[in-house]
TrEMBL record:
Record EC number: 4.4.1.1
Keywords from the UniProt entry: Amino-acid biosynthesis, Cysteine biosynthesis, Pyridoxal phosphate
Family: Belongs to the trans-sulfuration enzymes family.
Organism annotation: Chironomus riparius
Taxonomic superkingdom: Eukaryota
The protein's name in its UniProt record: cystathionine gamma-lyase
CDD domains: CGS_like
Length: 412
């Protein structure tokens, strides 16, 4: 069977399955283009927001803030504010802040905690986050506990009197496990004083809006789908809580971590096409997942929109669709064969990261995504095997991506 016929069959299945997700309300694409900036704001009436390179603003123009003039000189940049307003609107939030990387935003959230406080963290999430908490967090006196976030009862039992932050990533990266955001937020708010942070990088705010389900803070690596062009490193947080916003902003100010106005302008531009891009990422990933499911050299595909995903129904109940990542296992492959598969790819690039126009493939075991602080047994139990491949499906033609995977698998 050639890829063309496989692909036609898959498009049909996609339409059936897409109905299962929550329905997007109208308005997202318009907000992405208009909510941060209108030409009436400026004398020159440019339809696109300008890049303000200025490192300082005149105290004279900030009458309400005269007493804080010095602080504002360093911390306020109009281009950044336009981006923050857009990001807040897209998450159905009141406030957003941007950082020079996703990790910088996470570090800032961690820096709000005090020695003796505890973080309860999902055990199957982006490795950089695990390492940040387990290495730097522990060094500065924080306690860090890991739990299977897909099991609400275990989360309830793991809460301690000093738990101040619960860290959720759903779908998790790279294993695609789903955490029930509303159930976890309800348990945490009822039984502790902790805040619930959801790392929403894998879905972007187009496909999932955790504040609507009770999360206190949403964290993003903007580097991924939100910027989506593999050319900016940035992070952000969104929240509805004025108190949390002010606390995070204060920590940001005293630690001095902001992105450049130029990068902010690039992301303002990227967000205007977020809805379009995510639809295509999602379609490509689903077509590819369906193709791989039927391939004789593949022994398993991890993608929440597939009916075979153990948490398929839960996934559909809290998001509007699925981003461009998925994982699969090459049947019976050892690491050497996994590497050979990656070398055979011609369109997919053998590289880390996700969320850009370019499709990427990587074997988590060849890369740092396996937490160095986890034992071999823990790593194995989490599903990180030698034959695991993670794909970030970009925006190329789906039939060309499918053919690329097909020829690389068949060459093994
Ligand atoms: C990439 C990533 C991060 C870190 O973001 P950077 O912008 O690379 O610092 C955090 N969380 C998730 C889920 C990621 O994929």
């Amino acid at each position: 069977m050639g890829y063309q016929s496989v692909s036609n069959e898959l498009v049909h299945l996609t339409e059936n399955e897409a109905i299962g997700f929550l329905r997007q309300e109208s308005g997202f694409a318009t907000k992405a283009i208009h909510s941060g900036y209108r030409p009436e704001q400026l004398l020159c009436r440019s339809i696109v927001a300008p890049i303000y390179m200025s490192t300082s603003v005149s105290s004279a123009s900030l009458s309400q803030n005269d007493n804080k003039g010095n602080e504002l000189q360093n911390t306020e940049n109009p281009t950044r504010i336009i981006l923050e307003q857009t990001l807040a609107a897209l998450d159905n939030g009141k406030y957003a802040l941007v950082f020079p990387s996703g990790t910088a935003g996470q570090s800032c959230l961690m820096a709000m905690l005090k020695a003796g406080d505890s973080i309860l963290c999902g055990n199957n999430i982006y490795t950089g986050t695990i390492e940040l908490f387990r290495e730097t967090g522990v060094d500065i006196g924080l306690e860090v506990d890991f739990v299977d976030m897909t099991k609400p009862d275990e989360v309830r039992k793991a809460l301690k009197s000093n738990t101040k932050m619960v860290w959720v990533e759903t779908p998790s990266n790279p294993m695609m496990l789903i955490t029930d955001i509303k159930t976890i937020a309800d348990i945490v708010h009822k039984e502790s004083n902790a805040i619930v942070v959801v790392d929403n990088t894998p879905s972007s705010c187009y496909f999932q809006r955790p504040l609507d389900f009770g999360a206190d803070v949403v964290s993003y690596s903007i580097t991924k789908f939100m910027n989506g062009h593999n050319d900016v490193v940035m992070g952000s947080i969104s929240t509805n809580s004025k108190e949390l916003y002010e606390k995070i902003k204060f920590t940001q100010q005293i630690t001095g971590i902001w992105p450049s106005p130029f990068d902010c302008a690039l992301v303002i531009r990227s967000l205007k096409t977020l809805a379009l891009r995510m639809e295509r990422h999602s379609l490509n990933a689903l077509l590819i997942a369906k193709f791989l499911e039927h391939h004789s050299r593949v022994s398993g595909v991890l993608h929440p929109a597939l009916a075979t995903h153990p948490q398929h129904k839960l996934a559909l109940s809290q998001c509007y669709g699925h981003g461009g990542s998925l994982c699969f296992y090459i049947k019976d492959a050892k690491l050497d064969e996994t590497k050979r598969f990656l070398k055979h790819l011609k369109v997919f690039m053998w590289a880390d990261s996700l969320g850009g126009c370019e499709s990427l493939a990587q074997a988590p075991l060849l890369w740092f995504v396996v937490p160095t602080s986890f034992s071999d047994e823990e790593v194995h139990d989490l599903g990180f095997l030698e034959n695991l491949i993670r794909l970030s499906c970009g925006l190329e033609d789906p039939e060309i991506l499918i053919e690329d995977l097909n020829q690389a698998l068949n060459a093994l």
